[in-house]
Amino acid sequence: MSLTVFAMTGATLVGLGVYGLLARVHMLRRIMAFNLIGSGLFLFFGAAGARGAALDPIPQALIITGIVVALAASALAVGLVVALARSSGTACLPDEAGDT
Amino acid sequence: MSLVLDIALCALILGVGLATVAGHGVFRAVIFFITYGLLLAIGWARLGAYDVALAEAAISAGLTGVLLLAAHGRLRRLSAAEEAPLRRNLPAALIATGVALALGWAWFALPDPAAPDLTAALPQSGVGNPVTAVLLNFRAWDTLLEAIILLAALIGLWMLARDRAWNEPLGLQYHARAGGVMASFGRVLPPIGLIFGVYLVWAGAETTGGAFQGGTVLAAVCLVSLMAGVLPAPRIAQTAWRAALVFGPGVFLLSGVAGAIFAQGFLALPPALAKPAIVTIEAALTLSIAVTLVLLVIGPPDDGGQDA
Amino acid sequence: MTALISGLVLPLLAALAAIALPARARLPVALLGVGLTLAASIWLAISVWTNGAITVSLGGWQPPIGIALRADGLGAALGVMTALVMAAVALAARHEMEPLVAGPRTSFGFWPLMLLLWAALNAVFVSRDLFNLYVGLELITLTAVALVAISGKAEAIAAALRYLLFALAGSLLYLAGVVLSYAAHGTLDISLLAARTAVPGDALALGLMTAGLLVKTALFPFHVWLPPAHSAAPAPASAMLSALVPKASLLILLRLWFEAMPELATPVALFTLAGLGALAVIWGGVLALLQARLKLIVAYSTVAQLGYIFLVFPLAGGDGAAQPWAAGAWTGAMFQMLGHGLAKAAMFLAAGIYIAAVGSDRLSDVRGLARALPMTGFAFALASITLLGLPPSAGFTAKYLLMTGAFASGQWAWAFVLVGGGLLAAAYLYRPLTAIFAREIAVTPRPIPWGWQAVPLVLAMLSVALGLLSSVPFDFLQIGRPDQAAEGL
Amino acid sequence: MTTTLPVLLLLPSLVPAAVTFFLPQDSHALRNILQLGGAVLKLGLIVWMLVAVATGATYEAEFPLAPGLVILLRIDALALLFISLSATLWLLTTIYAIAYFGTKAELSRFFGFFSLCVAATTGLALSGSLISFFIFFELLTLSTWPLVAHKQDKPSLAAARVYFTYALPGSAALLWAIIWLESATGPVLFTEPPDLSGLDPAALRAIFALFIIGVGVKAGLVPLHGWLPAAMAAPAPVSALLHAVAVVKAGAFGVVRIVYDVFGAENMTALGVGVPLAIVASVTIVWGSVRALQQDEIKKRLAFSTVSQVSYIVLGAALASPLAMIGGLVHLVHQGLMKITLFFCAGIYDERAGIKRINGLNGMGKRMPWTSACFSLGAMGMIGLPPLAGFVSKFYLGLGAIEAGAPWVLAVLLASTLLNAAYFLPLLYRLWFLPCAANTKCDERAPGLVLPAVVTATATMGVGLLAASPISPLGWATLIVTQGYGP
After folding, report:
1. Domain locations along chain D
2. Are the beta carbons of D388 and D460 closer than 8 angstroms?
């Protein structure tokens, strides 16, 4: 039962992240939204991997890899946002700065 | 009882997650995001996935949080930290709900769990912690590429430097007051962190821990030392730093090639040698991961000037 | 096996060396890596040709515990195409990325990024593990984004950020599908998934993975990130981005729909994929028609040219896979993948020469350059022949095989896409060609070394030669092909 | 030997093409030697082959590209007719072009594409299957485009664009038709016409229409002829090549192949598509002549005359009676000889006397007697005066029309002859009977230009006079029809 709770939390987090990604234009927000989606998926995955008799280590290893990959992508994205702000004075993509 | 606890924890996670997305102000969102990561780490502990919990806390909450905070600081200086308030966005809400519902449905549609049987393989892997066995033996290729990804992200990040700043020290320069909190913190913390980080790597073979978690702790130590001015800020031109970056992946890669030459194949570890090999690889990897993470967080060389 | 592993290890080692070694050793070590990896890719193709598909279980662990790699005809062919493009890119970058020309930052970063991208592409071409493919895709994404941003210009930064945004969204969608299929079947291996017991969640998993890969392949309507990114990058980087990077996600898409879960390929799904491809052909072509810069025209043409490949889904997928025309249609799409790669790289490298010569790629500035740089003009024209699908180029072989499949399967409406797309390509390539071959020179060009000019020409000639000598590649692509149907029509 | 000869026939044009592209502009001697050497060598090979074929040898070479995609080169009687014509005229045009251009700019590019164009025509003639025909057809389009655009001034570029705008959709239609047909019948070889009995007649009619549109663009069938007069912006040797040797001829040749070797005369009649094709051809014949009459520029007038004359070949094929077919086939050769003569002369008038319009021709008969004599022979041949070449063609077409039970064609032929006379006779009148403008500078002491014209003009007369001989084009065409397509 607990697993279902975690899985549903994961699914909801993915939804939250998707909303943040689509509705927010500040790029730091979007980077956080990405991480939210990723961690939601991982939570879902972790819950699924815990269903068997023993804890399946493969999802755990994959999740750790995924977390590190997400960090690498976030670091590059953050760097790009700072560079964008430096060159154009805004942390939003050119054609979206005015929206929302 | 534990179900109630889990439900409460999940509600908290969702609440903080919601605040990260919908809350007002980018800075506050970052703080919520860090909190979110820590709560999620507790969730992982509840699921019994201690390795993941450690990774979540150290990497997602810790390093990503520092990264975001530092970025927010720079954006504020460039007056780009402000954002338009959140307006209702129906299409986005529909898509988000759809995705969440689809995943929710998928959970209930899952067949009985079908995990691969590792009982025969684990004793051959050389380590007692099954997660480490997967990461450094069964799926070592993933882990090797993952270390390379960190490196690629760093090279990519450096490409965002301005040409005139290329030979400057990395990152914006911090100036800790002599005798201030940061300075004393910077002297006291590193030895403790160093020991903890090394322990995590060593322990990772048998219980919770591992190269990435240990590397993160070492990176934190290194960051604090840099901020406190105990360590001089690195420059790209310094060969030692660049050598430290490639050392771990290089050892990993060459041990894989050695497996191809002397054992059954690429990345193969003979059971007798598996444990020392994994510990060696992990040690080398930890060093490089720590350095890479530090440099990822402090960013490309920056002379503080503005383009526009 | 050694050949397969060498193609992965050599570029990685060369990249690590290029990062660590001091500046003067960087170029030699990078070029050495390029040469050795090229040799390894050709060696792999030769061993696949003589021994059939090569399978390796990494670390000696069989799936589902470990990761399996498998080089089939398609993977090895893409590997060779990639190696040829990369070698050409390296020869062009030797001039364009020189420290004195490009500055110390760019000349430092280009080589490791290029070599890492190459390693990641080779990894994706042979991997049979869905999560390992995810890791490979991420490495491709990060290096590709960095290569877009490398020029440091404001529009390049914005284009790179938008690219990263789309690519990460695509990655997460793909990852969601991977998570679901592992949760259901306890394996990530494509061959094991093919033998799984189907569950209702499979369709969702496949749908999520497909959506993610479509974003990464820049299929209409997810193409908006591609033209700004590919045109903002320096020319050698654009060549890699346009010719190679979309092929990786496309290959995974093919592996999913033809190997892992072919039974989920319903007519509606296949029609949707090809329909989007058809719209990409038209929309990419129309937008290419409206551009005033050479690189933007070439970049929009990538959107259009990738669209053709999606016709493979209804022509050779689903129930059609067992039909006699499937082999031809499938191989036709693969010829498009290979031919487009060579031709598109040639075009971007030619554009790079023009930019180096006159400092701009506006059509008004490249006027008459064929007179001063005849080899480059000739290269652009030859590459255009492939994109137009005119004989005897690889593009024609592709078009012929796909059209034959369309008529043989009674889905002749798709032939309109092939023929109309060719005419549209003629329309949008006519302007750059007449500009380049104009009589009067608009801007007097700087001299370009002979060895550099020859690079795009060789690639363009290869794209034509692939069509002229297509019988060996045709047989090669059949090695390890799923659904071995009766040979051809 | 039997497989190498078809390939060998391509090489005398391909090799000079490949080498010429990379020659520096000022290495005139080497370039000319290459071009002439290639042309002479090819002619020699063809003579050798003619002898061999007469003794019963067959030649075939095959290059598989992919399943169904096979380049097949085969020598049959029809191929020989076309290839002999093109090889002979190529040699003459090369001599003419070398003299015409002298040391002008961009000659390496010009002669490179020139040879490539001839290689494509050779390949087209030798093609033994539909798909190889298509491949060389496209190669021809690609290699002639730079020739049309050669001068790179505004009119040439516009002409080249118009040419592409017509040619590419035409190719698309042709490819569509080929793949549609082959998806039902498998690869179509010209030696064994496909079995069409099981196919839907409506689909077959559509396929036939697409085929005719595809090759009709090149053959200049009305209303697909618009590019041909526009292409007059090209230099004279190019016009000669386009009209007499390569492009238009390739279209007409394609019609013959499609009618006789793909569909077969009987199927064409059974499908009821022969008469519509004959009507299209007739309309083209009359309309081309009417338009020619309205032109003031010599080359434009000749261009519309080509539109008209080439459709005699199509008409011969469409009537599907043996005699009409002989008339059409022999016109393939005759029209080539006559039209190339006229274009050679038009080029000489332009180049050596600056005459572009017909009123400039006044009195040129005395000032440029050789050129004017050749021009007159060509023009009279076009009108169909006996015993010149054009008469033979028209005579056989007329007989064929009666044989095919289509006497209305006689009216078309008569109208066309009258129109031909109406637009050519005034030129001859101007040449020989009007006084010349006082101080026109002219001289025809350019043997490289005049000699080819004299040769072709003599041939125009010769093929008419010697029509009864078995080695004349008429004898050859009769052989083709009685052997290959006889009832």
Report:
1. 283-487
2. yes
C positions 180-209 inside 8 Å of B (CB): 180, 183-187, 197, 199-201, 204-205
Q: What is the DSSP string of D33-58?
A: HHHHHHHHHHHHHHHHHHHHHHTT--
**Inter-chain touch C430–D164, beta carbons under 8 Å:** yes
Instruction: Name beta bridge partners: D69.
Output: D66
For D287-369, strand residue ranges (E) read none
* Cβ neighbours, 10 Å, residue D185: 16
- What the block records as the tokens of A5 is 């709770």
Q: Which fold has domain A2-96?
A: Helix Hairpins (1.10.287)
Distance CA B186, CA B193 (A): 11
Cα torsion B109, B111, B113, B116: sign: negative
D68, D142, D176 member nearest C489 (Cβ):
D68
**Residue D77 near residue D473 (C-beta atoms within 8 A):** no
Residues of B in contact with A48 (CB under 8 A): 107, 110, 113
Separation CA C66–CA C188 (nearest Å): 9
In chain A, where the domains are located: 2-96
Structure tokens at C305: 């040219």
Q: Taking Cα atoms as reference points, which of B220, B144, B161 lies closest to residue B189?
A: B220
Q: Is C333 part of the contact surface with chain D (CB cutoff 8 Å)?
A: no
Rg (CA), chain B: 22
Is C171 touching B (CB cutoff 8 A)?
no
CB contact under 8 A, A76 and C164: yes
CA-CA distances (angstroms) from residue C387 to C85, C293, C340?
A: 16, 18, 7
In this complex, the residue of B142, B243, B256 whose CB is nearest that of residue C20 is: B243
Residues of A near C (Cβ–Cβ under 8 Å) read 14, 21, 27, 30, 34, 37-38, 41, 44-45, 48-49, 56, 58-59, 62, 65-66, 69, 72-73, 76-77, 80-81, 83-84, 87-88, 93-94
d(CA B162, CA B305): 10
pLDDT tens for chain D, residues 1 to 487: 467 788 888 888 888 888 888 888 788 888 888 889 988 999 998 888 888 877 777 788 888 888 778 888 888 888 888 888 888 988 999 988 888 888 787 888 888 898 999 899 999 999 989 999 999 999 999 888 888 888 888 888 888 899 989 999 999 999 999 999 988 888 888 888 888 888 889 999 999 999 999 999 998 888 888 888 888 888 888 888 877 778 888 999 999 999 988 998 888 888 888 889 999 999 999 999 999 999 988 888 988 998 998 999 999 999 888 888 889 989 988 898 999 999 999 988 888 888 888 888 888 888 888 889 999 999 998 888 888 888 888 999 999 999 888 889 899 999 999 999 999 999 999 888 888 776 667 777 788 888 898 899 998 888 888 888 877 888 888 888 887 665 4
Q: Are residues B152 and C59, on separate chains, in Cβ contact within 8 Å?
A: no
Of B202, B232, B205, nearest to B218 by C-alpha is: B202
Interface contact A14-C146, CB threshold 8 A: no
Q: Is C204 on the interface with A (CB under 8 A)?
A: no
Round to whole Å and give the CA distance between D283 and D343. Answer: 24
Smallest Cβ–Cβ distance between C143 and the set B109, B156, B257 belongs to: B156
* Pairing of β D69-75 and β C68-71: unpaired
Residue of C nearest to B135 (CA): C66
**Cross-chain residue pair C143–B105, CB shorter than 8 Å:** no
In chain B, where are the structural domains located?
A: 1-110, 128-308
User: How many other C-beta atoms are found inside a 10 Å radius of the C-beta of residue A45?
Assistant: 26
What is the 8-class DSSP label of residue B56?
I
Where residue B188 falls (left for φ over 0; alpha for ψ -120 to 50; beta otherwise) is: alpha
Nearest residue to C61 (alpha-carbon basis) of B146, A63, B120: B120
